[in-house]
Amino acid sequence: MATSKTIAVILFLTTLVASSNAAKKATTRPLAPAILIFGDSSVDTGNNNYLPDANFKSNHIPYGVDLPGKAASGRFSNGKLYCDIIASKLHIKELVPPFLQPNLSDTEIVTGVNFASAGSGYDDQTVLLTKAIPIAYQPTMLKSYITRLKGIVGKKKAMEIINGAIVIVSAGTNDFILNYYDFPSRTQEYPKVSDYQNFVLKRLEKFVKELYNLGCRKMSVGGLSPMGCLPIQITSKLSRGISRRCIKSENKDAVLYNRKLQKLLPAIEASLPGSKILYANVYDPMMDMIKHPAKYGFKETKIGCCGTGGLSDMCNSGSKLCSNHSEYMFFDSIHPSLATYTYLAGSSYATLSKLLDA
């Protein structure tokens, strides 16, 4: 009798463990075959490391101080970027590698890579200053990626991966800051900011359609952040004796651009059969952080953790670094901290998950 009970208990425990393992495997199964990233420094995971002439690089301390091994990987933050966190939430991978990284493994290629470049923009004129990879050239990089992907898994499987991949696009800020506000090279051609917005949006539309023609179907396109609240913008417009505060006019421009983008994306989607193109709202969550910092555990929202926020101290190995990175909304004078990216990924995931059902 005792032997029978023992056997029964063992069988029960074995079944329980097997069920637990099966459930764990189900919850960690990738929710999409791959993730593909396009844009600027908000999502560049290190491509600029391999561009000799690029003016913006973060392959030095203290960038990456909160990554495993405190590695300065080329990400403009103290840790993971938004796109890395989304990739993790989708159970695809923990870190999305830059496409230009030498010796990428077949596994990394199959599960997706990053084509973004710090300093890039939809307007080709933007990269004349930054020497970044233009947004317009990133689809060409995608073509090279697809060629290698086909060599690994075959043509049919490769296109299934591209069709099912989650595509994240994040750009536009550099176009306005570099071409319109701080270095107004476009103001003569476009005296009204609304006209320049329309120009940028036409470039964006062309870019999205190029991605579609190469097989991308599930896309998340980011709007502009509150540009007037970036520490570098506050510093550049700061008057002596005036406290640090956001530039209302630049935020107003961002709101108008985002409204136009929200109307444009459904129209683009309607013109591309089988596509699902969503708007990623970063403005409202970031503005909420600025207005209610304590809710997010922030003590500082107008100065970066690294550097002073000025043009002469962007963030380098000799810059002053705050002691608690998670208390700062921005890590440097432009880019959000890991804490901010984590909140943004959390707030946008519900919307992004709609792409999984497309």
UniProtKB/TrEMBL annotation:
An annotated Gene Ontology molecular function: hydrolase activity, acting on ester bonds
Pfam families per UniProt: Lipase_GDSL
CDD domains tied to this protein: SGNH_plant_lipase_like (cd01837)
Signal peptide as annotated in the record: 1-22
InterPro entries: GDSL, GDSL_lipolytic_enzyme, SGNH_hydro_sf, SGNH_plant_lipase-like
This protein's UniProt keywords: Signal
TM stretches of this protein: none
Family, similarity comment: Belongs to the 'GDSL' lipolytic enzyme family.
Protein name as it appears in the record: Uncharacterized protein
